[in-house]
Write a structure and sequence with these properties.
This protein has helices at about 20-25, 25-40, 40-45, 75-90, 110-125, 135-140, and strands spanning about 10-15, 50-55, 70-75, 95, 100, 100-105. The protein has about 140 residues and is an alpha+beta fold. The chain has a single domain, classed as Alpha-Beta Plaits (2-Layer Sandwich), CATH 3.30.70. Residues about 1-5 and about 130-135 have low confidence and may be disordered. It comes from Rousettus aegyptiacus (Egyptian fruit bat).
Amino acid sequence: MEPVGQIKCKNIHVIGVPEGEEGEQEVEKIFEEIMMENFPNLGKELDIQPQEAQRIPRKRNPKRPTARHIIIKMPKFKYKKRIFKAAREKPLVTFKGEPIRLGADFSREIAEQKGLAQNIQSDKKPGSTTKNTLSSKAII
């Protein structure tokens, strides 16, 4: 297993694409449209085709009008890296004029590893002390 700081996850998390767009076209086509609208040179340069794309299930209140996020699995980590580099250089990433966000998506196992690593690092801070406390019944 790779060290936590060097995990190379190939998933991209797209936030803010309006709900109902996939009725007109598949989720993969939405991603290709985002790429051509925001990064036309990158699309021609790499010929990026997503390996898999899907909307995540609704976890929040179904009455609230928030769009479900899209998870896109890229065939190679270097494609994701290039997309994120281009997104950082561009001030605003949009889809049909609406601002969207691109982020890294980690599997549950990786997120747990990262959380565990953060807890371990916070315990090693200088000046932090741990106290052993016992309940009143344990003292008797």
